[in-house]
Amino acid sequence: MRNAGDVVLSARRLVTTFDTPSGRLRAVDGLDLHLRLGEVVCLVGESGSGKSVTGLSLMGLIDPPGHVTCDEFWFDGHDLTTLPESEMERLRGRRIAMIFQEPLSALNPSRRVGDQIAEVLRIHGLASRAEATRRAVELLGRVGIDDAQLRARSYPHQLSGGQRQRVTIAIACIGSPRLIIADEPTTALDVTVQTQILDLLTEMQTSLGSALLFITHDLGIVAELADRVVVLYAGQVVEEAAVEDLYRTPGHPYTVGLLASVPDVDAPRKRGVALAAIPGTVPNLLEVGTGCRFRERCDRAHDRCGAEPPMITLSEGHRVRCWLYAGR
Ligand SMILES: Nc1ncnc2c1ncn2[C@@H]1O[C@H](COP(=O)(O)OP(=O)(O)O)[C@@H](O)[C@H]1O
Ligand SMILES: [Mg+2]
User: Fold this and answer.
1) How far, in Å, is the centroid of ligand 1 from the Cα of 285?
2) Whose Cα sits closest to atom 16 in ligand 1?
3) Which amino acid residue places its CA nearest to atom 10 of ligand 1?
4) pLDDT tens-place string over residues 10-51
């Protein structure tokens, strides 16, 4: 792992529920997550596995009818379970930044991008009104936007998707976040632009020394980017490992299935390698009972899988939630 530093975020038994007309569903169910400064952790799983809800929960962005609870939540040395809501919001807003798949949703459509950046600089107290416009242009240049002076006067819809994502990265990094959460930030972009945006993101992360939680379903990106990987299935972590361990010796039958299309982390890294199609679908979260949530789709399922599988440590940092490894 490259420069794994201090733990910046530590969440224990994070649960996010939504009250729906058909009942309460647990979109995230007992997640343990520890992120260190300087590391890139990829959160992977099929659509509907709870990746976005995890990111939003960590950011404090879940609104009713959603509800988040956590046994422990430490961020940057603060115990967020005891902080008043207002301070918690301030801390998260400044020190955790989130980047979304669709940059348009993060930008105000009716304001010039330079003005939007300038406003964030002022809010963070980093520039006076007079300075902010100049600093905004500088920042646009810093994130690789050509003709920054001219582009600062553009509205979001006048920029390309890649340029818009550069703008949201610039804005996200203004407060020097200790943690950046990026939720499929390149999924909507062309492959060549994807590469540029990933390079920019990791360059910003490295220069800030922050942690990066990168949410993706693209295993090519995972192989390239991740120090560590967390695999989610139906709201639960089913496996967690350093990227090399996960690709070389995946433990959970679900991970084995996902990786079927990617033989080795050292194999030529192909972008756009989607998760292999595993027959069947993620269970309806309103209907999951006890036991392993993957058992309906698992070719190694056994009677005991009707009981909740234990989380088992295979080697340092490699954990898997599966009965196959119990009693070894
Ligand atoms: N606001 C909401 N209300 C009810 N259910 C939600 C809401 N947001 C997400 N969910 C449910 O939570 C589950 C996880 O969703 P999500 O985190 O978006 O998945 P992913 O990002 O992995 O594709 C899904 O079953 C989804 O339907
Ligand atoms: Mg999502």
Assistant:
1) 10
2) 50
3) 27
4) 999 999 999 999 999 999 999 999 999 999 999 999 889 999
Ligand 1 centre distance from Cα of residue 50 (Å)? 6
Cis peptide upstream of residue 21 (ω within 30 degrees of 0): no
Q: Which two tokens stand for residue 2?
A: 């490259």
Backbone φ and ψ of 105, nearest 5°: -70, -20
Q: Which amino acid is at 107?
A: L
Domains, the chain, in order of start with CATH, read 7-103+179-275 (3.40.50.300)
| CA distances from residue 238 to 6, 10, 127, 216, 322 in whole angstroms, order as listed | 25, 18, 45, 16, 8
130: Cβ–Cβ under 8 A, 6 or more apart, which residues? Answer: none
Could you list which residues have their CB under 5 Å from ion ligand 2?
51-52
Give the list of residues 6+ apart from residue 277 with CB closer than 8 angstroms, or none: none
Question: Where do we find the tokens 């993957």?
Answer: 294
pLDDT tens readout for residues 249-297: 999 999 998 888 665 555 545 555 555 678 888 889 988 889 999 999 9
Residue 3 pLDDT greater than 50, yes or no? no
Q: What is the pLDDT of residues 84-97, one digit of tens each?
A: 878 877 777 779 99
List the one residue out of 226, 274, 296 whose CA is nearest residue 41: 226
CA of 53 to the centre of ligand 1 (A): 6
